[in-house]
Design brief:
Strands 3-2-1-4-5-7-6 form a seven-stranded mixed sheet, with helices on one face. The longest helix is centred in the first third of the chain and has 18 residues. By secondary structure, the protein is α/β, with parallel strands linked by helices. The chain is built from seven helices and seven strands, in the order H-H-H-E-H-E-H-E-H-E-H-E-E-E. It has a single domain, classed as Vaccinia Virus protein VP39 (Rossmann fold, 3-Layer(aba) Sandwich), CATH 3.40.50. The mean pLDDT is 92. Helix 2 packs antiparallel against helix 5.
Amino acid sequence: MTSRDFQGRLSRRARRAGAPLPDRLGERLEIYFRLLSTWNTKINLTGLDLSDPSPETIDRLLIEPLIAAMHVSASTRRVMDVGSGGGSPAIPLALAIPGIDLLLVESKIRKSVFLREAIRALELEAGVVTARFEELLARPDLHEAHDLLTIRAVRVEPRVLMSLQAFVRPGGHIMLFRGTDGGETLGGTLPQLELRNTYPLTESTRSQLVVLEKHATGH
């Protein structure tokens, strides 16, 4: 697939989703995608077919994060992504929001190596921690240190969210990339967190973005 072909597919999906795609952003997303595709032949970073990416593959890896970026607060500076895997949604999100400081949390060593290479190639302000997020609860420097925490998961249990909110400052947000079921049930069940909004992502993936806000001190 030539660069022209890739950019054409990416542009069409971005237009369909109503997501901004400046030329420079499209170029950097292609760098990330091709790096992911190359590494995916060596280690399992994603089960999606990257050799001839379908609209659903482009939507999942690249367009969903671009849509999410439109809902990130302008004051957001520090972002933590948990279970980063092949780097989506966190890396495309960071590319769409210049200036954020990104921390990628990934428990698998080989995936962490890829993430560090992607950060280097894209010249992102980012770091990688090879650990399970539960281990990081023992690090006081990470407590309430982030404006936003992102995680892609089919289902996130309330007890997991209660642990993850420790990394988010009061007034900060957690963004869940997930399927179309269950997001609305999270509200009202978590004392520290409030369901702020649920946004549709892409039709092809039938996905949604669930945004939770951490109560400010004294709420």
